[in-house]
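An example makes the point: we print one protein in full, the chain in one-letter code, the fold tokenised, without further comment:
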Amino acid sequence: QVQLVESGGGLVQAGGSLRLSCAASGRTFSLYNMGWFRQSPGKEREFVAAISWSGSSTLYADSMKGRFTISRDNSKNTVTLQMNSLKPEDTAVYYCAADRIKFLNIVRAGAHDYDYWGQGTQVTVSS
């Protein structure tokens, strides 16, 4: 059983920053790529960013490039999403997720490629 617990969400003004963290347990964290997704009311879950098991490769959605940074610390079983220059349209529940396949060298953006999910953390950006 894998558990992913997100933290760090909250309310921030446009232009501000937040740092989300995801703590993992129950599976060898360092073997799996990790991703962040988000979902707003009435919208489908959307890819945000992902990082390879080694941390050497990252992938970002176009609208997040240059504003968001994903990183991981395998010694602490955590993955972090640093979000800068936040916009009201970034308002959503943010989820971290673990890829299905270990030692995968390709970083993937499809939600169906991830089999474990956290409960989500709310991010609200006011204008």
Q: What stands out?
A: The longest strand covers residues 92-102. Residues 48 and 63 are 9 Å apart (CA to CA). The chain has a mean pLDDT of 96.
